[in-house]
Amino acid sequence: MILCIKKLCIFAIIMETKRQQKISKLIQKELSEIFQREIKTQGNIMITVTKVNVTSDMSYARVYLSVFGPDKEAKTAVVKEVNAMTKTIRGKLGDRIKLQVRVIPELQFFEDDSLDYIENIDNLLKS
Predict the structure, then answer these.
(1) CA 10, CA 33: separation in Å to the nearest integer?
(2) Residue-wise pLDDT tens for the chain (127 aa)?
(3) Is the pTM of this model over 0.90?
């Protein structure tokens, strides 16, 4: 993040603490197992947890999902379906990590479109 005031630019780097990084990795690992073993989606769709960002007070977690499926509409529908099941997923996560964290964070799921972005850049470079 760059903050500019009257030609004076201050570079502020927002870094996660070690605790946030550990909780993020723990949540990512456990959610990956939950999606792999316990959550069933319709069709031939695979869900991967690519990144988890936890707030500094550990009360909210932004979870980025990479969805491998037939088309863009199906991917968007899967993310909406997962958002509808947030309470169930949070409960399953709580059962798994309740001894390691004090508060189970509220989960917010977002589609990770970095693979689409990489593919687009690759196609532009090839042409």
Answers:
(1) 41
(2) 455 555 554 444 467 789 999 999 999 999 999 998 887 766 678 889 999 999 999 999 999 998 887 777 878 888 899 999 999 999 999 999 999 999 999 999 999 877 777 778 888 888 7
(3) no
> DSSP E strands: which ranges in 7-112?
8-11, 46-54, 60-68, 106-111
Domains of the chain, earliest start first: 16-126 (3.30.300.20)
Residues in the chain: 127
Nearest-10 crossing angle of helices 86-97, 18-37: 110
Distance CA 6, CA 93 (A): 47
